[in-house]
Automatic annotation (TrEMBL):
Organism for this UniProt entry: Candidatus Thermofonsia Clade 1 bacterium
Recorded name of the encoding gene: ppk1
Active-site residue list: H450 (phosphohistidine intermediate)
Annotated family: Belongs to the polyphosphate kinase 1 (PPK1) family.
Protein name: Polyphosphate kinase
Record keywords, A-Z: ATP-binding, Kinase, Magnesium, Metal-binding, Nucleotide-binding, Phosphoprotein, Transferase
NCBIfam families: poly_P_kin, PRK05443.1-1, PRK05443.1-2, PRK05443.2-2
Segments forming domain Polyphosphate kinase N-terminal: 19-125
Domain Polyphosphate kinase middle, residue spans: 134-320
Source organism phylogeny: Bacteria, Bacillati, Chloroflexota, Candidatus Thermofontia, Candidatus Thermofonsia Clade 1
Molecular-function annotations in GO: ATP binding; metal ion binding; polyphosphate kinase activity
């Protein structure tokens, strides 16, 4: 529906009511993940996986975002959020939203998923319900394998309360000795064992019971609790209750004072083990006395305490989701290769014929790996440069870089050590690359390098030619199968020159580079996007075609949101596809009538960033690594790259964007009150699942 242009004299765009709190918006994203677990149309184990995703997401949210708010309260820093809330008010609002979701998750797991899994031959059993034969074989297994690993830690005047590591599962054990005196001990549930013990496997190794052809699992902590008499001989076990601690993982790196960034990051990773406790989860059956003892020793208040039904630590349900029962999972999908990049082709020759767009995971990531592998082997290649953000534990791309060094190429890699939760992995790769002779840079002081760029310099008969790969996603072969991303292979001379300037900026001191086609943060991206949006406003005011379509992971930046409000008031039609956090409030009279916000949540994680500007009929489209968040625009090295070939622009607009905006199976729309509503097909129409459509049509390219 079109709305007439309004005068640019608008309501106060600093009004807090025009902005949605970023923390609460993120919780709404995670609520959508939880609701996927409730979806009866999904295969059972995929529903279990969404429970694990929800739980893992929430752990990271507490480790980073909640911890940051708690730090502000602890240090009496009362920075008001754009929506007008203090840190204390945000913490209260977070708790109010999180608690019901935690109870809903457990209720659905117990009442819906476990019975349906049992009907399908997958049984998650409680120790109390096991047969005597099962208990006997588990005791033998416990004595042989678990008992030697356990370290009971008593708490008394001579033995202080032990350190509780982040996200570890622990049993709080209340005991009575031979003199009737109560004692307390902590037993850590070791994470070297599966959380869900395969009962059939235990029987095969320690018993004689036949394999019934069913999957039977029992919780590890219950097996330990049932055999504590072996750990505490001569004492009576009064209580064994599970608890779990989440600690602050958002520890700052003093980069300006660091003489060696790699060592500093290593120190921070170690220090995280001792961050303040931000959340304590306890089993609802835990006694008040033990609960109070834990709260006192962990130095938390009731606001950080979450009393929950078992099980705790439900991110471990990834184990269950990964068992080999194909009938309970999504059908397998094999990505296709673009017609322009058949298997075994000369990738550099293919790029010379024209720019190549790849839509992952529907199109294979293999050509990108081969881009590096062919560069490593090609005698005409002189140098390879790339940025590495989240690399993965096994990386054929890193192996190709190591091979390139052996073949005498010049290789430079920026390994971003500060990629949160991937620091240890990236440190390992950085050391391996350095030891092989790769020029390794760890990033720029004060900035994370989030750009996804690689550059191959090749000597050809016509002279030096630069081949560039730019992407919205990481050089990670695992996430390339589950994240949706856009990649571009090009040998455009100006983009090649820009990539060269960018790498010189990253490895040297070129702080004043002037890029011809790339939009690079933090130097130029914000001002460039401002100019592009203002150009649309001018087109609308002149009666020309004016439209913005932005697809991104998050929209948080207040100044960008205010400018989008101005564009809406000028009559610019704006469609936003925002997977996660969206602080913009659409549909507000006089401010954002012309703005619509949708999101998609399905089998694959939506990760691509696409920015379309109608530009009065001469459309421009950029893809890139940056969302419209202050951290991306101001505190990271990011790149947006133009899609120039007319056929590629048509594919992005008329296929990728158009299909996603037409989704009536997995889409939701953001309402002015900050809640989301599912998009349903019109009466008599079949629902359109955009991700399924891309899977079915991937071979068309």
């Amino acid at each position: 529906m079109m709305f007439p242009a309004q005068p640019l004299q608008v309501p106060d765009l600093t009004d807090p009511s025009l902005y949605i709190n970023r923390e609460l918006s993120w919780l709404e994203f995670n609520r959508r993940c939880l609701h996927e677990a409730f979806n009866p149309e999904l295969p059972l184990l995929e529903r279990v996986r969404f429970l694990a995703i929800f739980s893992n997401n929430l752990d990271e949210f507490f480790m980073v975002r909640v911890s940051g708010l708690q730090d502000q309260v602890r240090h009496n820093v009362y920075e008001i959020s754009p929506d007008g809330l203090t840190p204390h008010e945000q913490l209260a609002a977070i708790r109010e939203r999180v608690l019901p979701m935690l109870y809903q998750k457990r209720e659905h797991f117990h009442q819906e998923l476990l019975p349906r899994l049992a009907e399908s031959g997958v049984h998650i059993l409680n120790y109390a319900d096991l047969s005597e034969a099962d208990r006997q074989v588990l005791r033998r297994y416990f004595e042989a394998e678990i008992f030697p690993v356990l370290t009971p830690l008593a708490v008394d005047p001579g033995r202080p309360f032990p350190h509780i590591s982040n996200l570890s599962l622990n049993l709080a054990v209340r005991l009575e000795d031979a003199y009737g005196v109560e004692r307390f001990a902590r037993v850590k549930v070791p994470n070297i064992f599966p959380r869900l013990l395969d009962l059939n496997d235990v029987h095969r190794r320690y018993g004689t019971a036949p394999d019934l052809g069913l999957y039977r699992f029992v919780w590890l902590e219950q097996v330990i609790a049932a055999n504590l008499d072996l750990l505490f001989q001569g004492m009576h076990v009064l209580e064994a209750s599970l608890f779990r601690v989440t600690r602050n993982n958002d520890i700052e790196i003093a980069e300006e004072e660091a003489s060696d960034l790699l060592e500093s990051v290593e120190e921070v990773v170690r220090a995280r083990r001792f961050g303040p406790v931000v959340r304590l989860d306890v089993d609802e059956r835990m006694s008040d006395s033990v609960r109070k003892l834990l709260m006192h020793n962990l130095e938390i208040t009731a606001n950080e305490l979450y009393v929950l039904p078992a099980p705790l630590g439900m991110r471990d349900l990834f184990e269950l989701a990964n068992i080999d029962v194909p009938a309970l999972k999504y059908p397998p999908f094999t990505p296709s290769r673009p017609a322009s990049l058949p298997s075994g082709c000369d990738i550099f020759a293919a790029i010379r014929r024209g720019d190549i767009l790849l839509h992952h995971p529907y199109e294979s990531f293999a050509p990108i790996v081969e881009f590096f592998q062919q560069a490593a082997e090609d005698p005409s290649v002189l140098a390879i440069k790339c940025t590495l953000y989240r690399i993965g534990s096994k990386s054929p791309i890193v192996e190709a870089l190591l091979n390139a060094i052996e073949n005498g190429k010049q290789v430079a890699a920026l390994v971003e050590l500060k990629a949160r939760f991937d620091e240890e992995n990236n440190i390992g790769w950085a050391r391996a690359l350095e030891s092989a002779g790769v020029h390794v840079v760890y990033g720029l002081v004060g900035l994370k390098t989030h750009a996804k760029v690689s550059l191959v310099i090749r000597k050809e008969p016509e002279g030096i030619r630069r081949y560039v790969h730019l992407s919205t996603g990481n050089y990670n072969t695992v996430t390339a199968r589950i994240y949706t991303d856009i990649g571009l292979l090009t040998c455009d001379p100006q983009i090649g020159a820009d990539a060269t300037l960018l790498f010189n900026r990253l490895t040297g001191f070129n702080n004043s580079a002037r890029y011809q086609k790339l939009l690079v943060a933090p130097e130029h991206l914000r001002t460039a996007v401002y100019a592009l949006i203002k150009r649309e406003i001018a087109h609308a005011q002149a009666g020309r075609e004016a439209r913005l379509i932005f697809k991104m992971n998050a929209l948080v930046d207040k100044r960008m949101i205010a400018l989008l409000y101005e564009a809406s008031q000028a009559g610019v039609q704006i469609d936003l596809l925002v997977r996660g956090i969206c602080s913009l409030r659409p549909g507000v009279a006089g401010v954002s009538e012309n703005i619509r916000v949708r999101c998609l949540l399905g089998r694959y994680l939506e990760h691509a960033r696409i920015y379309y500007f109608a530009n009065g009929g001469d459309a421009e489209i950029y893809c890139g690594s940056a969302d419209l968040m202050p951290r991306n625009l101001d505190r990271r090295v990011e790149t947006w790259f133009p899609i120039q070939a007319p056929e590629l622009k048509r594919r992005l607009l008329d296929e990728i964007i158009a299909i996603e905006m037409a989704d009536t199976a997995k889409a939701r729309v953001l309402l002015p009150d900050g809640t989301y509503q599912r998009v349903l097909p019109a009466e008599g129409e079949q629902p359109l699942d955009a991700q399924r459509w891309f899977m079915e049509h991937a071979r068309d390219h």
